[in-house]
Amino acid sequence: MADLTEQGALQKTPFYDLHISAGAKMVPFAGYEMPVQYKLGVKKEHLHTRNSAGLFDVSHMGQLLLTGDGAASFLESLVPVDVLGLPAGKQKYALFTNENGGILDDLMITNLGESYFIVVNAACKEQDICHLRACLPDNLILEELSDRALLALQGPEACRVLSALIPDVSDMVFMDVIRATVEDVECIISRSGYTGEDGYEISVPESKATWLATRLTEFDEVEWIGLGARDSLRLECGLCLYGHDLDPTTTPVEASLLWAISPVRRNGGERAGGFPGHSVILEQIETKSVARKRVGLIGTTKAPVREGAELFSSDGELIGVVTSGTVGPTIGKPVSMGYLDSDFAALGTEIFAEVRGKRLPMQVEKMPFVPQRYYRG
Predict the structure, then answer these.
(1) Residue 293: Cβ within 10 Å count
(2) Residues 202, 110, 60, CA angle at the centre, nearest 5°?
(3) pLDDT tens across 233-268, in order?
(4) Kind of pairing, strands 53-57 and 148-154?
(5) What is the pLDDT of residues 332-347, one digit of tens each?
(6) How far are the Cα atoms of 106, 127, 252, 329, 338 from residue 295, in angstroms, in the given order?
(7) Closest CA to 192 of 216, 175, 179
(8) Could you tell me if 122 and 60 are in contact, meaning their C-beta atoms sit under 8 angstroms apart?
(9) Is pTM, for the whole model, over 0.90?
(10) What's the start-to-end Cα distance of the chain, in Å?
């Protein structure tokens, strides 16, 4: 992959030529030229993923390998997650936190047995590597896997398609990870993704990436899907986007990510605390007291309510802001998530979003807006 030049040139993933051939509209994203949509358009790409199988280029994300005795304990010093108890062949969602309890990034950690495979967000890749290296013990080795691409195959037909090439993937359940070869190409495959659908993420050597993507798109069920539909898919399923719904000023408790803090790392747990900002986060859990909370919102008009829209109470008081928003193609209604003063965060509360000078009614609703369909066996 090309590096950024002094002029700030955008990097290209190994699939760039395939995207152009498929009619992609390319846009700058996290330092890369990335496809925002293809000929189908965002709505049809979204619905195709929900109904069949969508192929996403996520090679801009950072892939890291941490090796050495004590790797799990080291990771536990940075995340509020039970890494020591993570079995080999399993993956877990995690958060890097700062000393104030804010979220530096969200990431995936996989126990490969002899090492830990870590996937971080593209926009945070360099800072995450620096964060890890800043206190890395001498006996641990952190390697950036810059010679690997990353594909996500998502949707109800994903298993049938991928198992035609790699039969072992059909036995996997949500958050399983295996090493597998397809025609002598070694891949790291997780049964996971960020669309709310069943599917897989496939780490593949860059030299074989185009070959694998071509094989996958030869299936009638598979279409390339761009960033636009990836965003609407994750939003319908209540999944956060770092830099929008999560940031260094927001704690996991405020972000309604309490489930991402393992019980063993909470007060009373065997390894309580020990991660940056634990005193702030654990106190918020104990007291059940935060000033604001991330909530789901459904509009009662047809107008989309997008990021940045201010939220008001029925009395006209400014009580929050939208951090993500669109019209959900599956649900057929405007869906948003954002932060509200806790006094207004109860399900069913009516609030008003200011859009182009008008205050549009919305209601606080439970997320996900569309059921998640991860395969759990």
Answers:
(1) 20
(2) 45
(3) 999 999 999 999 999 999 999 999 999 999 999 999
(4) antiparallel
(5) 999 999 999 999 999 9
(6) 18, 28, 13, 20, 6
(7) 175
(8) yes
(9) yes
(10) 38
